[in-house]
Amino acid sequence: MELNLMKAVHYFSFFACLYFLFQTSAFAKADVNIQINKSVETLSLIYTTGTPAQKIAFVNSPNDSRTKRWKPVNNEFEVVYEKHQEFIQRIDGKAFNHVQLSLTPTYKHLPKSYAPIAPFSDGGVLIHTGRLFACIDLCSDDDNGWKIKIEVEGNAHFIANGKVNYQSENWLGYDDGQYVYIGQQKPIDEPTFLAMIDQGLPEKMKMELSQSLPKTMTFFESHLGENSSSVKPMLFASYSNKKGKDIQGGVLPNQVFIHWDMDNLDEKLKEKNFINRTLWMFAHEASHFYQDSASLVSDKSESWIHEGNAEWLSAIALREFYPEIIELFISKKLNQAKSDCANALTKYSLEDAARKGNYRSYYQCGIIIHSLIDKKTRELSKGKQSIFNVWNDFKEQGKNKGKTGAVGFWAVTEKYISSDMLQGLKNLTTDKLADPENYINQLESL
To answer: N or C terminus: which one in the chain shows less Cβ crowding within 10 Å?
Structure first.
């Protein structure tokens, strides 16, 4: 998520004070400090508490895998799973304020959660700090804010909060946390982003990512303006190069990542469009760095605005970089999105999709909406304007007038497309349609 810049000094001071008070309060509630130690041979955690604890309970326990993969260094401790909750305790039941654990530094798929560790092929690792968050006795919804410290040895460094660190560093972690890289591989360190692309990836994949990521970031910045976050965006691509079959990608604040837990990526590259799908995913997530969508869309039922926009911006970016080979892929992607969108809208309206748990429809219907806005904007302006103009006006309107969400988006869009198309697209997002596929066909013919 991106942070909005405060322009007035007195407002900045006011919010800075609130921020400090909130952070301090949140940290005090958690009252558990976390230290990560990484050497060539081991990966370990140290938990310390401000007050003695009978047990340390984890914020999130999707299963009991910590009991198998987190081993207390001192055999007086144990990791236990009871009533869907994992926690650390002394075997004799006594209180404690310090415990050290050794972690298994391999990939582990977790249900509905990001992997705790994504190993790089050279021994480096990505560690999800959100997996480490814990509380004294039991976590409540109010617990948030953990002091994190990382110690590395020798030539290793770590990447956190958009920076490369060569010495130990402390910070406060919140909410879902972030991935931190610890290892010796040097990142691509550009003024506007950091990227860590596993050197063990097949040469073709490594070359495509190394060339595409910088171009994609530069492309979006040139059309949407600078990333407004104070934290430099980070992109990670890791490869276990060990037996497995999982691919996991995702986003955390200011981060995009994908991990291949397998040793047959060379074979995967033979699959048609495997690289195209990977580049599309990175382009989609990279576009979010420049949308400022966190300040523009707050209602989940309006997620078609930023997710659909990101999908279409991915198409525009890849078309810019690979005009000879990408068009068929984009065409198939749009046709599939149209089919999936129409299928979803036969069951409920688009604005009801979130309540029904179908978030994919915001991507599928959203790309149709934004592709049509872009097409009509270019036609009516004779190529002088595009979806980028629409989105930049949306950002300016949100910043200057506070007019956001669907109401704000349509208020901007009406300046670029015909009234018939505008009303038709509005209805697509709100109405329960009798024949969604035919309705979309009619919109495309306007």
So the answer is: C
Across residues 368-380, what is the average pLDDT? 98
Tens of pLDDT, residue by residue over 64-102, are: 999 999 999 999 999 999 999 999 999 999 999 999 999
What predicted TM-score, i.e. pTM, was given to this entire model?
0.85
pLDDT in tens, 278-304: 999 999 999 999 999 999 999 999 999
The secondary structure of the chain, three-state, reads CCCCCCCCHHHHHHHHHHHHHHHHHHHHHHCEEEEEEECCCCEEEEEEEEEEECEEEECCCCCCCHHHHEEECCCCEEEEEECCEEEEEECCCCCEEEEEEEECCCCCCECCECCCEEECCCCCEEEEHHHHCEEECCCCCCCCCEEEEEEECCCCEEEECCEEECCCEEEEECCCCCEEEEECCCCEEECCEEEEECCCCCHHHHHHHHHHHHHHHHHHHHHHCCCCCCCCCEEEEEECCCCCCEEEEEEECCEEEEEEECCCHHHHCCCCCHHHHHHHHHHHHHHHHHHCHHHCCCCHHHCHHHHHHHHHHHHHHHHHHCCCCCHHHHHHHHHHHHHHHHHHHCCCCHHHCCCCCCCHHHHHHHHHHHHHHHHHHHHHCCCCCCHHHHHHHHHHHHHHHCCCHHHHHHHHHCCCCCHHHHHHHHHHHHCCCCCHHHHHHHHHHC
Q: Which of 276, 274, 258, 277 is nearest to 266 (CA)?
A: 274
pLDDT band at 30 (very low <50, low <70, confident <90, very high): low
How do residues 124-135 score in pLDDT, each as one tens digit? 999 999 999 999
Listed residue (45, 51, 48, 96) closest to 66, CA to CA? 45
CB-CB contact of 118 with 104 (8 Å): no
Torsion of CA 48, 54, 55, 59, to 10 degrees: -80
Tell me, what's the pLDDT at 185?
96
Q: How confident is the model at residue 39 (pLDDT cuts 50, 70, 90)?
A: confident
